[in-house]
Amino acid sequence: MAWIEARKICKIFPGVRALSDVTLSVEKGEVHAVVGENGAGKSTLMKILGGLYSMDSGRILIDGKECEIKSIADSLRHGISVIYQELNLMPALTVAENIYISGLPGKMGCVNYRELNRRTQTLIDSLGLHIRPTDYVSALSVSQRQMVEILKALSHNSEIIIMDEPTAALNNQEVETLYGIIRRLRADGKTIIYISHRLREVFDLSDRVTVLRDGEYIGTRAIGELDERKLVEMMVGRDISQLYQYAVHPLGDMLLEIKGLSKEGVFSDVSFTLRAGEVVGMAGLMGCGREDIVKSIYGLLRHDAGSVAVNGETVDIRRPTDAIKQGIGFVTEDRKDAGIFALMTVRENITLNILRVISKFRLISAAKERELLDTYTKRMNMRYANEVQRIMNLSGGNQQKFVLARALASGCKVLILCEPTRGIDVGAKAEIYQLLSSLSEQGYAILVISSELPEIMSICYRTLVIFQGRVTGNILRDEMDENLIMRCATGGATHFSEGAML
Ligand SMILES: Nc1ncnc2c1ncn2[C@@H]1O[C@H](COP(=O)(O)OP(=O)(O)OP(=O)(O)O)[C@@H](O)[C@H]1O
Ligand SMILES: [Mg+2]
Asked: Backbone phi, then psi, for 306, in 5-degree steps?
């Protein structure tokens, strides 16, 4: 018998039917994946189970008994913990305070910090993490924050743990740690509901999978009955295998030239070029310095030495607006903190970058904004209720598409994209790859930082590898191979393809 069952759940937001008659039936002790395209309704369903949203109609049963979940406290009491897709930590508090915020140990209003930190340390140790209970969350990286969210969910010792794209911000090693945690939880008899756009994870981890599409229930299958193709077909309702194919086209002028870029203790002597028509990957382990390198090109971080030239002319980029003026666009990996303007509308978000640059016109016409929005909505298959919807109410993947669309709409010729398809569904991924390919054909130069090697391998003409702040590889497409990239990324080898301009 099902352990937790959601029956005929409906949820309507103004202008969107997020869930209609959705069913989810999960057995005790299983890892149950929930998949579907961006905006399919996965997070909405989890927020209902977590007590964050109320449903319009439907029933929830746990262990055969009907239960009412009207608040987060109700949900916790029924033994459900949710790790939400958007991180919800308080940056100004410590790791320990964040984890135990709803139940700080102590007496008569005084927090027993020694006890608090001791408990937190025990949790941290159980996962073998390298953070301290007293670290402020504001000082942690995105992936460390994600781990804190996971610790917080574990601290409740709930029977049912829901993870909404927990790996989106994790590096490979952290993903392994998480796999270990999930397997251990399952061995302890806990039930896990797992949402991910990385199908490999779904196949690695889950016992069964439920597919949603456009707010509707499509079906539930044992993982053994499926292969990737069948699953994708259930998700998108069409065959997408032909959607993206790597295309070769000639390279043009040198658009960006980086020489000897260094920042003490972070990266050193980084040199590379980007030519019109090139899609270049940048691989490396978390902490290798790749984000800092590109941030310093974009003016978000000062470098100590080295130069940046655009179109053959050395430029001095001190802040992002300088970079945009030089035709360099940047998409951050940290969507929530820096990528979107959560309270602004869909239409405003798309033109924000350009607004600053062309602010001498004071006003940007709504019609122009609408036109840009229309173009990208179609190109990327973006879903939202209407153009004045607040960005923060879009599904996670649709927010990511926005960040990307905004960079593209800014008219930059050099695009630097960090983890561009994080949280984006399979269908849209293929469309974005296709879009990058056609942009490069039109003469854009694109640098893609990605932790997903299959992504780099499928879209890049060439890939740079960074190890401890230095370039250890410059590998052309025909020589690219996951093993070789990993060896360069871990300091086990260097490889500079012959004939490849660095
Ligand atoms: N608070 C809200 N207000 C208005 N609309 C919302 C709200 N939350 C979600 N929606 C809409 O409901 C639909 C389902 O969104 P949901 O976040 O559940 O999708 P998802 O399957 O989690 O997608 P993703 O893979 O992109 O995270 C979307 O069309 C979204 O715009
Ligand atoms: Mg979601």
From this structure: 105, 170
Residue 502 lies in a domain: no
What letter does residue 390 receive in the DSSP assignment?
A: B
More confident residue, 227 or 345: 227
Q: Which of 42, 44, 163 to mutate to test the pocket of ligand 1 (most atoms within 8 A of CB)?
A: 44
Domain range for 474:
254-344+412-496
- Tell me, in angstroms, the distance from the centre of ligand 2 to residue 472's CA: 36
From 11, 16, 86, the mutation candidate for ligand 1 (largest count of ligand atoms within 8 A of CB) is: 16
Mean pLDDT of the chain: 86
Query: How many structural domains comprise the chain?
Result: 2
SS3 428: helix
If we measure between CA atoms, which residue out of 202, 196, 232, 237 comes closest to residue 216?
A: 237
Q: How far is CA 16 from the centre of its chain?
A: 24
Instruction: Tell whether 361 is covered by a domain.
Output: no
Pair of tokens at residue 473: 């590889």
Ligand nearest to the CA of 52: 1
Whole-prediction pTM = 0.77
Angle at alpha carbon of residue 391, lines to 385 and 396, rounded to 5°: 90
Same domain, 124 and 227: yes
- Please check whether residue 192 lies inside any domain of the structure: yes
